[in-house]
Automatic annotation (TrEMBL):
The keyword Hydrolase applies. This is YqiA/YcfP family alpha/beta fold hydrolase. The lineage of its organism: Bacteria, Pseudomonadati, Pseudomonadota, Betaproteobacteria, Burkholderiales. Coiled coil: none annotated. PANTHER family: ESTERASE YQIA, ESTERASE YQIA-RELATED. GO terms for molecular function: hydrolase activity. Keywords: Hydrolase.
Length: 200
């Protein structure tokens, strides 16, 4: 199973989430893909994700996390012992999201939501200082990310499989070029196909 965890202010309607859902549907494996709308509270988001994967065999589970979802995916992967794909993951969201305390809107619906000050402490409780099994992680980081620093991402996942994209952006506009490699890492062999060379 694949559990996709979207980023801050994002949703299941994100480009990357929809593209993976479409690929899984084409492969006749739509039932093995989930992408819930995560609540603003990090603790509540983690609880929701844990509920989604509670009956999954870790060997058959991959978390795909984008931006803040990558931070969540890392914590969950360390606890569950499963694989994780990180797409321009947030490495230090307690620092980066401090300025968003208050009311924000979702990207895809303009729906308002409140990011409360106590959520910073919830994020701090999820910090993973060092990953324990690098082979379980696949990092895709774009040097052109206008929101987060790709060098922090690369440094946070040492010895993991890494694909550093020269240029691009925070949303990874060219994600369709990498979706096959992502699904192959998730164990979806039929999607393997040709993939860009990985930087290790």
């Amino acid at each position: 199973m694949i559990l996709y965890l979207h980023g801050f202010r994002s949703s299941p309607q994100s480009f990357k989430a929809c593209l993976l859902a479409e690929r899984m549907q084409q492969l006749g494996r739509a039932a093995e893909y989930q992408c819930p709308q995560l609540p603003a509270s990090p603790a509540a988001a983690i609880a929701m994700a844990q509920d989604c994967i509670k009956d999954c065999d870790p060997a058959a589970l991959t978390l795909v996390g984008s931006s803040l979802g990558g931070y969540y995916a890392t914590w969950l992967a360390e606890r569950a012992g499963c694989r994780a794909v990180l797409l321009n993951p947030a490495v230090k969201p307690p620092r980066d999201l401090e300025k968003y305390v208050g009311v924000s809107t979702q990207y895809h619906s303009d729906q308002p939501f409140e990011f409360k000050r106590e959520y910073i402490a919830e994020l701090q409780a999820l910090q993973i200082t060092r990953i324990t099994r690098p082979e379980r992680y696949f990092l895709i980081a774009a040097t052109g990310d206008e929101v987060l620093d790709w060098r922090e991402m690369v440094g946070h996942y040492p010895q993991s499989r890494q694909q550093v994209i020269q240029g691009s952006d925070h949303g990874i506009s060219e994600f369709a070029d990498y979706a096959g490699a992502v699904l192959a890492f998730c164990g979806i062999a039929a999607a393997a196909g040709p993939a860009p060379a990985a930087r290790t």
